[in-house]
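The data are passed on as follows:
___
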Amino acid sequence: MSQTHDGVSLTRHDDAILEIRLSRPRVRNALDEATARALGEALQAAAEDASIRCVMLSGDGASFCAGADITEFQEGKTTSASKRIVTLFQPALLQIVEMHKPVICAVNGAAAGIGAAYVLASDLVLMGRSAYLKLAFINIGLIPDGGITWHLVRQLGHARAFELAATAAPIDAPACQALGLANRVVDDARLAEEALSWARHLVSQPTQAIANTKRALRFAALGDLEATIAHEGQLQDECKASPEFADRVTAFLSPRHP
């Protein structure tokens, strides 16, 4: 059963999986203020709901997200870019990164502008064969925002990141996979099915271990080696204290274990 509010549709799959879909297909899921806020609220609610163990992001229609709704610039609704980014887009982006459950982004069609930021912030990225990323900011005299520069320079280095940002050339799905910006590329018709299959696999894994794997990797991206090793130890203690650890060790040591 799905619920739609302010351009965001929520669907539960198998109880433990929540699909959050951008649902403004007539404008290629461009984010206006209401939709950006609704997306942040939906992600926060998912982060706080213990029954949800995996989140899927997707988009209705032919595009994942065409970026921010430019008509709001023309209508004079926004005066400060920094305020807009922090109040409208940052909450959702930080929820994707910081929630203790995996976020899978299923990209159909274009993920442009701020839409690319949501893709790059996700834990796992699955792209339809016709999907692409486009850092279109330079075309209207802006720079990539929403943390795009943070992700790209760490994943690709300065030269490649600058090239993508300065040219605004579309990065097709196979290129995204080759660059490490996407995990898998599948036929467009199988995108939803493959994303859900991946989500089902993740929720079959130990909850605490999945959460702490995400936390460990995010910490390691910023910390030095010594701090990372210490942090891994703390997270390992949390895993060992979970009932799932004891159950799985018992099963592993069972004579019936293959």
Observations:
- The first strand starts at residue 2 and ends at 5.
- Residues 2-203 form a domain with the 2-enoyl-CoA Hydratase; Chain A, domain 1 fold (CATH 3.90.226.10).
